[in-house]
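Example record for the data management plan.
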Amino acid sequence: MKYLGVIKITILSLLLSVFNFKATAQQKFHINGTITGLTNGKIYTYKNNAVVPIEVKNGKFQIEGEMDEPVYNLSVAKDAEINYRDEKTFTSVLTEPGTQTLKLDYSNFRKAILTGSKTQDDSYRYDAIRDKIMKKYQKEFDKVEALHKKFDDAVAAKKDEKTTEAIKYEINDAKELLEPAYKEITAATLKFLKDNPKSYFSISTLLYYLNGMTYDEAKGYYDSFNPLYKETKTAKYLATEIEKMKKGIPGVPAGPFNTKDINGNPLKLEDFKGKYVLVDFWASWCVPCRKGNPHLLKLYAEYKPKGLEILGVSDDDRNEDKWKKAVEKDGIGVWKHVLRGLQYKEGTYERINVDQDISEGYNIHSLPTKILVDPNGIIVARYDGGEADDKKMDEDLAKIFKTK
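Corresponding structural encoding:
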């Protein structure tokens, strides 16, 4: 799990809050709020993709809304445009029908306290468990945060690419020291889901821990959830994401594609028929991916004569020049390379031609991820990154090619 995985529940809840507010209203919620550090002024919330200013008078404010589901993710921010890198400037709370109370601190929105919502109470219980683990590794988390600031400052100062790239590698090394924390947080989260299957919070939380789970594990958690909440948009979206997990797993046919390689030549999956192919999902900006390339080169040199091919699928559709430079710099042009095929409607983040997105066809949500396909086009293994997966990949390849 990546460092951002620790905070992504909050960020993605903001996105879901916009999504959940679109349907026909059936119930109402009312927030009586107080805020310290701001006597008169404005804070902001969001409705149907629009910014809604909330007036603060004498340190008090009110937020009203309509909801057609049992729970609504209410986002409140210091500024009209949310700065996702600064968690102190926004919060997301789980409101329920009826009247609730929200206390804010203008200097740190993370200190927000909502009372009157059972679902938010569940969230606080989970936060306490997670925060206890994070405090054990506070020094390491602080180092990562400081390095992110160092990177932002370097970009703002227009430092050269060599400088910013070096900081990226520092960040990656610091994150690796947090692997024990990530593992503890994941284990604690899954225990919370198991112990609280009837909570709406468990449904929304599972969304952000699917990566690294098998389809059967995710389906097992989902099946245990409260049937009432399974009718919510969040639960339906979760069910869709779980179904997508059937793609790109061992035992199923590899997703077909028809594209052009880095040199502009046509390339399709069928071109690799009769050989084992390791599909490497990576990007020029992904430090762990780049750090793993020397090892991939060794594997390629050892097993290419025995029938192994490697195909690099890069998440660099908007950075083709950086993609090509990375391939050249890392010396990995010895195997085939393509872009994933991520496309957006011009001037927006609305995706188009999703069926042409290779990563979508293999259910790729994090980098690096590698998929091993056999000579018949069947997926035989999936490696989602980390030392354990890298070791398993080496063992699998050695076993496959030992008699060849």
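Summary line stored alongside the record: Residues 1-25 have pLDDT under 50 and may be disordered.
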